[in-house]
Structures are given as C-alpha cells and as structure tokens.
TrEMBL record:
It comes from Maylandia zebra. The lineage of its organism: Eukaryota, Metazoa, Chordata, Craniata, Vertebrata. Its main location: membrane. This is Ig-like domain-containing protein. InterPro entries: BTN3A2-like_Ig-C, Ig-like_dom, Ig-like_dom_sf, Ig-like_fold, Ig_V-set, T-cell_Activation_Regulation. Residues 1-95, 112-181 form the Ig-like domain.
C-alpha cells in the first residue's frame, strides 16, 4: 500500500472543500477554502499524507490524494463541496490491500515450513503435493502486527512414504496469491539409513570387538580373584 486517489468533482466558483473519514467518526481529513489548504483541524493521523490537485481545483476537481496508505485508512469517506451554486456531498469506500510479496518455504530437520509477512486482508494458506496426496497442514498460525497487517506460517512433517513428493504452499487473499515449492525434501534423520553398507558392517564389527575385549578382561579379573583365594588358603 502506497498511495491512492479519492475522486470528487463539483461545479461553481469560490469552492469550499471538506474531506472526512465517516467510518472513523467523521474525522477531518483535509479542508480547502479561501483558495488555500486549511489544515488546522486535520486529524493528526493524516498529517503530511493528504493533498488536493490544486492546479485543477478551478476546473472542478476536488479529488483527494492520500499517501502512505495504512490499513486503518480503510473505510467510508465523504467529500463535501460548497459553491455559489449550492452544496454537494459524495461518498466513496476505500479498501486497503497489502498484497503478498513473497512466500518462503524451507526444511529444517524433518519439518517443512511455509511463511509470508506483511499481508492484508487476512490471508489463507493451503498445502498441495505432486503427485497428489492426502497431506494435511499443521500449526497454521496467523498473527496481526502493530500496523494491522498479518504474518502467516504453517508447518508439516512428511512421512517416510512421502519422500518423493513435491511440496507446494499457496498463500492467498482477495487480491492475489503466491506459491512456493520444495522440490526434493530431505529424508528424515535416521543414522542407520544414512550409513553406507561398508560403514554399517564396520560399526557392527567395532561393537562386537569391544564386547570381546570386555569379556576377556572380565575373565582375567575372575581368574585373578580365584588365584588370590587359593594363595591365602592354609595347608
């Protein structure tokens, strides 16, 4: 969201223009009379963000330009104009949108996570796979920010039978949607599966060798204990 124009027109001379945000309690957004902007009563929230097309006012253009548009700017606005020909009111609804810019998908350990930030209105998130499967998302979290935008994230843990699937995450709003794909998920951490057969045989051999050494030491200690008893026995 950057800037927008709220249209308004009139007919006549010596115009008085008042813009109000009706949905926020009829607060003053911008005023113009005596051939210049009059901002003494402008609501603080709109300071430095409003302007008229001053070079076109004489031709009947009373449109308002609003910059740095925020979510709370959304709502109903009233344009009031007064000339020697009479008074007029017109209304316009402003809808604010913060489109999805980027969807991130990544795998950490066995968990695949999809996320996006700074979205308005409230987004939705769906998972899909190729080939198709019955994968279901877990822990879908939507958090509002101080600017009334939304951050969304979701995660899932693929099963061992789903390692060959291509995972896609789609985040969408009424305005747009974006998609991200993870082509080759890493297999779940499993040390026995990650060892080469030769490494596995060497590991097993090492374990057996260690057990043999322990058995020999135990036999020696037992023999020394028996021998000590024999030497201490009286004749």
């Amino acid at each position: 969201m950057e800037r927008c124009m709220l249209p308004c027109s009139y007919g006549g001379r010596d115009v008085v223009i008042h813009w109000h945000q009706v949905s926020a309690g009829d607060i003053t957004v911008h005023s113009f009379y005596h051939n210049k902007d009059q901002l003494e009563h402008q609501n603080q929230r709109f300071r430095g963000r409003t302007s008229l097309f001053n070079d076109q006012i004489s031709t009947g253009n009373a449109s308002l330009q609003l910059t740095k548009v925020e979510v709370r700017d959304e709502g109903k606005y009233k344009c009031y104009t007064s000339t020697i020909n009479g008074n007029m009111e017109s209304f316009i609804n402003l809808k604010a949108d913060a489109p999805i810019q980027k969807v991130s998908i990544q795998q950490v350990g066995n968990i695949i996570t999809c996320s996006s930030e700074g979205i308005y209105p409230k987004p939705e998130l769906t998972w899909s796979t190729s080939p198709s499967s019955n994968v279901t998302s877990k822990n879908i979290t939507v958090q509002p920010t101080e600017r009334l935008l939304y951050n969304i994230s979701s995660s899932l843990i693929p099963s061992s039978s789903d390692r060959d699937l291509k995972y896609s995450c789609t985040i969408s709003t009424r305005r747009n949607g974006e998609k991200a794909t993870l082509f080759k998920p890493n297999p779940p951490n499993d040390s026995s599966q990650s060892l080469h057969p030769n490494q596995l045989r060497a590991t097993i051999g090492g374990i057996i060798g260690g057990l043999f050494v322990i058995a020999v030491l135990a036999a020696v200690l037992w023999w020394m204990k028996i021998k000590g008893r024999f030497l201490r026995s009286p004749y």
